[in-house]
Amino acid sequence: MDNIKSQPIPTEDYLDIQLTMAGIRLPDSSGGSYQIAFRILLSNTSERTVRLLGRKWILRDQTGRTRLIEADGIFNQHPLLQPGDVFAYTGRHTFTELPTHMEVMFFGLNQAGLPFISPSFIFPKKTYQACK
């Protein structure tokens, strides 16, 4: 059997990732969960067409519990972004404990069919200030 060397998927800065809205719902007096709702704009700022295939989230709460979520598509879509195109979506994550970290990256293919991963977008700490 031949030795097959895996190649790392390059991180490419094709996308400008902007958080345009974030809100939190605190647990009520009977308990419950923290819910972070958000709206993200993905702008293709490169000179290449890209297709987004999925996303990876890293979520952490005050206990240090970390969840990794990888998902195919972006809400069941695989948007094709020409240079200058924008794709927006709204989502929500639920935490049983006070959230302390939310990070997302997107993966896809460029116009040559080569895979890429976007740089990580880390939600600003002010997203959680309402929790304290």
Explain what the structure shows.
The protein is mostly beta strands. The protein contains one helix and nine strands; from the N terminus they run βββββββββα. It has one helix at 126-129, and strands spanning 15-25, 34-44, 50-61, 66-72, 80-81, 86-95, 99-110, 115-117, 121-122. The strands form two sheets. Strands 3, 4, 5, 7, 8 and 9 form a six-stranded antiparallel beta sheet that branches. It has a three-stranded antiparallel beta sheet with strand order 1-2-6, with no helix packed on it. Strand 7 (99-110) and strand 8 (115-117) form a beta hairpin. The protein is globular. The termini are far apart.
Share of β-strand residues: over 45%
Helix percent reads under 10%
H/E series, N to C? EEEEEEEEEH
Radius of gyration: 17 Å
- C-alpha geometry: globular
Structural class: mainly beta
Q: Tell me about the largest β-sheet.
A: 6 strands, antiparallel
Low-pLDDT segments = none
Q: How many β strands by DSSP?
A: 9
Mean pLDDT: 86
Number of helices: 1
Keywords:
mainly beta
Spell out the blueprint of helices and strands.
Blueprint: E1 15-25, E2 34-44, E3 50-61, E4 66-72, E5 80-81, E6 86-95, E7 99-110, E8 115-117, E9 121-122, H1 126-129
Antiparallel strand pairs: 1-2, 2-6, 3-4, 3-5, 3-7, 7-8, 7-9
What can be said about this structure in brief?
This protein has 132 residues and is mostly beta strands. Helix content is 3%, strand content 53%.
